[in-house]
């Protein structure tokens, strides 16, 4: 991050330029000089900035989908957003986890290798309590999961991974499956300690409980699709790919959707006294004449004109015209 000068530092710099202590030409020459950038060979940056930005886009979409799913499952307000996307060694990630933790190890078929996502304890126990009908409380002291709790978390985790495959759809087809849940970080060795990984942290709030869900994906696992992790590929694929089967499915859903249709015989205005005095058999004059077409409403919008009639001993209408401009009714 670029340092920001304080007002006193700005004043001192201006004074030095005015007095001649600092030569502007020397500053320009120094700016032109090629600067040396430190490089740690033990932590090579394998993910480019563009690839990390693509991961951010993927997991922002995933966070929105996952928040909707968890809100429905837990019957509580769930807020989720991407807090950070960074690359580090696998050893650094493992050392950052407490013991016990809730570490879900999953395969990333058809990619070879495993990934990890860690659910911080307050979130996991809050979810379990809500699924058991509680208010979402968490234990005072962090502990390992019981067998029943482990089964619940495994089921929820698999559904979360199903949604993850949808988020990756524009990059590659994934079929992630939960392999096992580990509580001791030292036993969760999926790659060598010095292997570079990308860490995506999702800031999550379930009701009043706040925590993180961290996804750890090794570079060696993502290497076959690493070239596709570019925003150009992402948006080009999204805009150009037309799936005929998907379009046909949407068309069928729209065609079979039920919509309300109403025929408006007419309107009038009466006083409250006249309304209270209405009796069976009274005639209420409307603003429509007998020869005028009736308004046909789809939802609250007028779309057609029609004539009333009878068909097979049932009231019916015959469409006589279309409302070209349309318009919603209050």
Q: What is the gist of this entry?
A:
The protein is of the alpha+beta class and 330 residues long.
Can you give a write-up of this model?
The chain is of the alpha+beta class. The chain has 2 domains: 49-241, 3-Layer(aba) Sandwich (Chemotaxis protein chec); 261-322, Surface presentation of antigens (SPOA) (Roll). It has 10 helices and 10 strands. The strands form 2 sheets. A 6-stranded antiparallel beta sheet has the order 1-5-6-3-2-4. Helix 3 (49-74) packs across helix 6 (147-167). It is extended. The model has no long low-confidence stretch (mean pLDDT 82).
What's the helical proportion of residues?
A: 25-40%
Q: Architecture of the largest domain, CATH level 2?
A: 3-Layer(aba) Sandwich
CATH topology of the largest domain: Chemotaxis protein chec
Integer-rounded radius of gyration: 32 Å
Number of strands: 10
CATH superfamily heading of the largest domain: CheC-like
User: If helices are DSSP runs of H or I spanning 4 or more residues, what is the number of helices?
Assistant: 10
**Main beta-sheet strand count, sense and barrel state:** 6 strands, antiparallel
User: Which class best fits the helix and strand makeup?
Assistant: alpha+beta
Domain module tally:
2
Spatial gap, N to C terminus? 54 Å
> Could you report the average pLDDT, rounded to the nearest whole number?
82
Q: Please list the strands of the largest sheet in the order they lie side by side.
A: 1-5-6-3-2-4
Provide the low-confidence segments as ranges: none
CATH class of the largest domain: Alpha Beta
What sequence of helices (H) and strands (E) makes up the elements? HHHEHEEHHEEEHHHEHEEE
Strand residue content: 15-25%
User: What is the general shape?
Assistant: extended
């Amino acid at each position: 991050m670029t340092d920001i000068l304080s007002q006193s530092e700005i004043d001192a710099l201006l004074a030095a330029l005015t007095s001649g202590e600092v030569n502007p030409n020397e500053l320009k020459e120094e700016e032109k000089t090629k600067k040396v950038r430190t490089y740690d060979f033990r932590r090579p940056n394998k993910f480019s900035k563009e690839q990390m930005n693509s991961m951010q886009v993927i997991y922002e979409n995933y966070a929105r989908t996952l928040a909707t799913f968890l809100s429905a499952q837990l019957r509580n307000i769930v807020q989720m957003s991407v807090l950070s996307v960074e690359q580090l060694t696998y050893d650094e990630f493992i050392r950052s986890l407490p013991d016990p933790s809730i570490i879900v190890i999953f395969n990333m078929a058809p990619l070879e290798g495993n990934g990890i996502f860690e659910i911080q304890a307050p979130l996991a126990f809050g979810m379990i309590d809500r699924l058991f009908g509680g208010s979402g409380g968490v234990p005072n002291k962090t502990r390992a999961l019981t067998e029943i709790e482990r089964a619940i978390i495994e089921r929820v985790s698999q559904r979360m991974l199903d949604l993850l495959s949808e988020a990756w759809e524009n990059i590659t087809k994934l079929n992630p499956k939960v392999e096992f849940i580990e509580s001791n970080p030292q036993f969760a060795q999926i790659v060598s300690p010095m292997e570079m990984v990308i860490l995506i942290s999702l800031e999550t709030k379930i009701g009043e409980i706040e925590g993180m869900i961290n996804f750890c994906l090794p570079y060696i696992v993502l290497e076959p699709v690493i070239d596709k992790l570019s925003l150009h590929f992402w948006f080009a694929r999204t805009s150009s790919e037309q799936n005929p089967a998907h379009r046909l499915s949407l068309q069928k859903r729209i065609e079979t959707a039920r919509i309300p249709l109403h025929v408006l015989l007419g309107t009038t205005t009466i006083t409250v006294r006249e309304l209270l005095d209405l009796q069976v058999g009274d005639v209420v004059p409307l603003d429509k004449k007998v020869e005028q077409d009736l308004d046909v409403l789809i939802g609250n919008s007028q779309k057609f004109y029609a004539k009333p009639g009878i068909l097979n001993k049932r009231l019916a209408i015959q469409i006589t015209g279309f409302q070209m401009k349309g318009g919603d009714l209050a």
